[in-house]
Design brief:
The complex is a heterotetramer, with 2 copies of chain A (81 residues) and 2 copies of chain B (146 residues).
Chain A (H helix, E strand, L loop, with lengths): L1 E4 L1 H7 L3 E3 L7 H9 L3 H6 L7 E4 L2 E3 L10 E5 L6
Parallel strand pairs in A: 1-5
Antiparallel strand pairs in A: 1-2, 3-4, 3-5
Chain B lengths: L1 E5 L5 H7 L9 E8 L7 E8 L3 H16 L2 E9 L1 E3 L4 E9 L2 H18 L2 E7 L2 E4 L4 H5 L5
Parallel strand pairs in B: 1-4
Antiparallel strand pairs in B: 2-6, 3-5, 3-7, 4-6, 7-8
Helix pairs in contact in B: 2-3
Classes of the chains: A alpha+beta (81), B alpha+beta (146).
Chain lengths: 81, 146, 146, 81
């Protein structure tokens, strides 16, 4: 699946997008997997309350299922308008 | 209903004048425009990042919710991304309704949801520094009234 | 702050585009426009009578109250009188503020007071008939929220 | 003092403005005086709840003083916007 990062999450992780093979079934499990990878992931995902997540371009929460999802995106709270 | 996401500037005056123009059944038109603000006077550029694909989906969903909830003749949402300078117009919404209450409420609803639910992020460049604009608690709180 | 009372049409797009243009300290601009509405499709002319002298006084007072009550960078009120056809723009207000809450609330306040406290009266001409538009109770009730 | 009429009040009375010499000290007294004049005045002032009044271009109520006023205007509830 594609994992996308935006704004300071993208900057902290150092890339906008990557392809990840995972057996995680929820966003929270995917986050655990990413955190264990490298310090930059651990830093980006240190405080989940400062993060938002979208699965297949729909805003959702960290309990959401990612089974069959094509893309998961992580980003800070939005500041448009 | 029209939703536009683009990098280029938009012509606010022409969009406002053209919106619902010639409609004889709509008595009230409301527009909101967001402008790059530079209170301290040091801002060189505001850069807006977005999530292509999701942005359009999110804005269309918000606009459709407004159409379902109020009696509207038309809705317009334009939002830019990329770099822009102080005083430039970032975005606009417009609503047309028979009476002003619907037009005002729908425009405020669009703005409240757009602020906290559409995937845009602002980064301010001032001098050599760049910083992400933090979301305001009161923007999230604003959603509770709907 | 600018208050204009005139018979001639005004250029809504140009007024909207020019309002608070170049201001770098205002993040939010709201406009409201009132349009001659012809729901039944039989309206030939809407005629607006006003009270010269008192009209300007009343609108300036309302605009000043909005400026005193909210943190606004600028306020514009334009209102026409005389005969106009379906779809023509009767009036507009515009407000500029640092944040959208002030801009929206001030625009709604201006409209609520303008509706019930500025001396304008609408007469509809349809076919051979002419009738004065009745004030709506909900317009008077709208004032209680401020 | 000048007495002005607008909208259907103007139409019912048949003129937009007239000069009136009066000893009335309040709007209500002036209305009583006008009502007694002719039927068209009685008709226009039949239901005061359907009327509004301005003294010297300020909206006020029927108890208001008109002593020293330059103009008094009668009209229906406003319908601008």
């Amino acid at each position: 699946m594609d994992v996308l990062y935006f704004a300071w999450v993208r900057e902290r992780i150092g890339q906008p997008k990557e392809r990840i093979e995972t057996t995680a079934t929820t966003v929270a499990e995917l986050v655990q997997e990413l955190r264990a990878r490298e310090d930059r992931y651990a830093a980006a995902f240190a405080d989940l309350s400062a993060l938002r997540v979208a699965v297949d371009q729909d805003l959702t929460d960290f309990d959401a299922s990612i089974t069959g999802a094509r893309e998961v995106a992580f980003f800070p709270p939005m500041t448009g308008g | 209903m029209r939703v536009v996401v683009q990098q280029e500037p938009f012509d606010y005056g022409a969009e406002a004048a053209g919106f619902a123009d010639g409609r004889h059944d709509m008595g009230a038109v409301v527009t909101f425009t967001g402008v790059v603000r530079d209170v301290a006077g040091g801002l060189s550029t505001m850069e807006i990042e977005h999530y292509p694909g999701m942005t359009e989906r999110a804005l269309e969903k918000i606009a459709q919710e407004a159409v379902d909830r109020w009696s509207l003749g038309d809705v317009l949402v334009i939002h830019r991304f990329g770099p822009m300078g102080p005083g430039e117009k970032i975005m606009m919404v417009a609503t047309a309704a028979r009476h002003r209450k619907d037009a005002f409420e729908a425009a405020e609803y669009l703005m409240d949801y757009l602020k906290s639910r559409a995937p845009f992020w602002k980064k301010e460049h001032a001098g050599g520094d760049a910083s992400w604009v933090a979301a305001r608690d009161e923007d999230e709180d604003a959603l509770t009234r709907w």
